[in-house]
Amino acid sequence: MSRPGARVGVISNPTSGHNRDHFGAVETTLACCPGVIQHAVTATPADIPAALARLADSRVDTLVVNGGDGTVAAVLGAMLEGAAFPRPPAVIILPAGTANMTAGDVGVRGRLRPAVARLCRWATSPAAGQSAGERTQRCLMRLDMNGTRHYGMFLGAGAIIGGTEFAHREIHARGVRDDASLALSTLRTVWGVLRQDPAFSRCSRVSIRSDGAAVREHDALILALSTLQRLSFGMRPFWGEGDGPLRLTVVDRECRRFLPNFIRIIAGRPGRGARPERGYHSTNATELHMDIAGPINLDGEVLTPTGPLVVAATAPVTFLRL
Fold it and tell me: What highest taxon heads this organism's lineage (predicted)?
């Protein structure tokens, strides 16, 4: 399907991981597509609603987010909350952040500058745009927490917090990004769990009520919640039944045979060992009421709930992978 006359709007966060190194080149490439690509640069999240309104007034039919996982959640959350677009546009995610977990599942994979060049070819050339790419849908998570509404596509707790702090301190500071950074932090976390290192084996007391079911209590070694199908470096740690877009996995502190089961779980093949009576739980839901004692990772940002939080799935967003 050709794309003559495509109207593309790009929202950029120049302080996102890869943008810090390549934003000048990105701006130059986008500027070579006048009349087809409109570029809005945001300095803070508060700038996003106005940028969306300007692009909507220009009647863009494709919205591109040039930023990291947090920027993606902020832009899409503002799009869903606001009324700028009568009909939400298709969304393209560029791998411009540090971890780029969302881009790895529903966005443009690979390095940032080639991804931007690919976007420009698609937007301007009917010959290059004969294939409109792969369209897929995902919901976002809408979190009501501490009196504030947040949006995201991944939430983690327990040992994930130690891995996140290690990544910020030791991995990202050395310029390692994308799947490599997440693989290294995961390996270090697993090693810490096996050695019972308190910096990596911390647990979170969690109470969970899923879609009105009875409350379940966990001393969670790992809690992972997402609307993505593929997490970093290809992990697929969800095997719950049901149609809900919220995919939740909890590994209890007293789980059995952690290492072999963990390897199978992240590969998407949990096997017979990953059962509730052995400390492994996975479920799908449309709404979760949770009380988590301790910090959470929301799309790479560490936050601390001060009370119960409600997580609900938004309406689906259509993503386009080039």
Answer: Bacteria
Question: What is the rounded distance in angstroms from the CA atom of residue 152 to the CA atom of residue 64?
Answer: 17
Q: pTM of the entire structure?
A: 0.92
Give the per-residue pLDDT at 1. 38
More confident: 44 or 124: 44
Nearest alpha-carbon partner for 322 in 47, 59, 93: 93
What is the structure's pLDDT at 280? Answer: 98
CA–CA separation, 124 vs 8, rounded Å? Answer: 10
Sign (positive or negative) of CA dihedral 46, 49, 55, 60:
positive
Taking CA atoms, 149 is separated from 79, 145, 146, 228, 310, in Å, by 14, 6, 8, 20, 10
Assess whether 55 and 105 both reside in one domain: yes
Residues 6+ apart with CB under 8 A from 307: 145, 146, 291
Q: Count structural domains, the chain.
A: 2
Q: Is 45 exposed, middle or buried, given 0-12, 13-18 or 19+ CB atoms closer than 10 A?
A: middle
- The answer on 127 and 165 residing in a single domain is no
**Those residues with Cβ within 8 angstroms of residue 279's Cβ, 6 or more apart along the chain or in another chain:** 251, 252, 253, 254, 255, 256
Give Cα 242 to chain centroid, integer Å: 21
Q: How confident is the model at residue 177 (pLDDT cuts 50, 70, 90)?
A: confident
pLDDT at 264: 94
The answer to whether residue 1 is domain-embedded is: no
